[in-house]
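Hey, quick one: can you model this chain's 3D structure?
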Amino acid sequence: MNLALWIAAGLLAAVALAGGISKTFVPKEKLAAHEGGQWTADAGVGFVKTLGILELLAAVGLILPAVLGIAPVMVAVTAVCWILLMIGAMITHGRYGQFKLVLLNAVYLALAAFVAWGRFGVESFTA
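Sure thing. Here's the predicted structure for all 127 residues.
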């Protein structure tokens, strides 16, 4: 179970890192031109960059606390925050009719729920 939780957290961290880098450093106009990024055309630059920074923080929060052994409960807290972020992403992509991306975000949400459940409960770092 512990290995599965590490793999799930690692996958989510990779997704968060990729999304965070693109939203933080790629110009909004370039993001809007790509499949799935159309929503950025209607969003402010600050909002897009803020989401990118939150995703970068999520990438760190899903891995680093457990690796360093400093406040490892933050892995589960970060997973809950990722769930909230994915709910927002699902709503946004749904409004744009991008139902494949809604499904993909639902998978990310399920992985985050698994990590939160596992790290708050059965495979807590404090147990």
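One thing worth noting: The chain is about 75% helix and 0% strand.
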